[in-house]
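Limitations
The structure tokens in this dataset are predictions for the assembled complex, not deposited experimental models. Users should treat interface geometry with appropriate caution, especially where small molecules or nucleic acid strands are included. An illustrative entry is reproduced here so readers can see what is and is not provided.
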Amino acid sequence: MSATASSPLIAETKSARVDSLALDCGVTLAPVEVAYQTYGTLNAERSNAILITHAFSGDSHAAGIDPESGKPGWWDDMIGPGKGFDTDRFFVICSNVLGGCRGTTGPSSLDPATGSPFATGFPGITIGDMVRLQAKLIDHLGIQKLLAVAGGSMGGMQALEWSVAYPDRVVAVLPIASTARHSAMQIAFNEVGRQAVLSDPDWNNGNYHATGKPPSRGLAVARMVGHITYMSDASMREKFGRRFRDKETPSFHFGVDFEVESYLRYRGLQFVDRFDANSYLYITKAMDYFDVGAGFPSLGASLARAQARFLVISFTSDWLYPSYQSLEIVNALRSGNRDVAYCELPSTYGHDAFLVEVAEQGEIVRGFLTQTHKLLSRKSGSRS
Amino acid sequence: MAGALVHSVLGRRDYAIIGEIVEPGSRVLDLGCGEAELLAWLAEHKDIQARGIEQNGGKVMKAIARGVSVYQGDLETSLHDYPDRAFDYVILSQTLQQTLRPLVVLNEMLRVGRCAIVAFPNFGHWRVRLSHLWSGRSPQTPLFPYEWYDSPNLHFLTIQDFEQLCERQRWTVEKRIFLSGQRDVTFRPNLTAQVAMYLFRQ
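Predicted assembly:
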């Protein structure tokens, strides 16, 4: 128990440099910067580290208060003293993904060969590449084996990839509201987002850094579509209904009439300020390419490589990553008689539920991690 | 001794007996495990590898929070994903009569498990027979308290029914336990036992 259990975590972004990273596309990227944050304390045995993997538009600021903006991390309700990922007991790490735009090397980083941003000269990336970079960060931090890798949505894909790419380096894996591979529908939504960016003239074949005019309109539209898929019919009805925004009657123009229009426009504009359009293209492609069963006769045969125990969680109203996709993972693991727990939590929040529904989610994550830690210490106890 | 301890912890005699049957370090699957009290107890005291299946989401949540790997799903359709002989024991405690196709479930239990442990309320108990005889209505007793229209029970089986099924299926019964309240009964169990428990294998 730490004496500062109740004081809020202060988020501090650190950076590590990796000499080189061999990518799935055949290109080697060198060097690579990784932005990351940590919370809690690594124990003497270095056995209490948990890697949190972020979703599509997330970053390394998963928990605690950012000293500059004063904002809490994107999973602050789940990570902290006494929370689901209890920082009084565990050392929690979160890094910005490869291809991102929040401190880790991505298309907006400077290409050492040219001195200007990579833009579309950035090599194509995969979820596997992101995970390989995370493994190098874990090496850098002197950690041989992670107690757990956990994440929602694209974070869940990374967690799943960890289980098969580094089976002996992770004790437990928690893919939440995620999938073993994108469905045609998920690829389709990503393609609409990419087309919104690509068809904005300001995109300029990716070279908008030179003009200083990023494709803000296209990126905002892409984000608007994204936000619709993150919610549910029920949550949108509840949040906006058909309410007008600051008016009683229709305007008969194409300005903002409805609350939901105002919300989407606001979210779109807000996103443009913090996200790079080329990162949007590269990362959505990485998600679409991901298929943890690729090259294997079945998903079960692929996941047979995993040694970890699993906690898989889905949410009832999540139509973007529906429960059947989580069940596909769970049933493949059960067919190999793996240690897997699965729960479909009730929620009306759609895909956003993994960020919002923290009470029940926190409770089961906490119990699962406690048991994982117990099994681990029992195992290491019997070995010595 | 261990049984008494189980009972003092769980207050359910069938749990106590399962605790005595299950060998330490074995792999156990509990069907309809609820909040996984039994599995958690077995994991703690018998060092078993505990797995459960439960349909009720709220119960699954509590089970996982308790540290047991429970799968949320329908036990009748979920068993087929497991490979043959994945477990040493597959337990179905007090829910056999609620399954849609009991024989399919029992056969699946014997496919994925080395042994099956089944506990069910005995419809042949004298109280049930009397209730039916005197009232002329569907029997209602402490063990079968439901009205016919809101009963979760779909099948009503007696100890003799189960014995006959074991014979027909050529299952080897390794252990039979008949209970009335907390007491073991041996005299005419089909009349006197409220609950029967069987340990059997293919």
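Some entries come with short summary sentences. For this one: Residues 1-5 of chain A have pLDDT under 50 and may be disordered.
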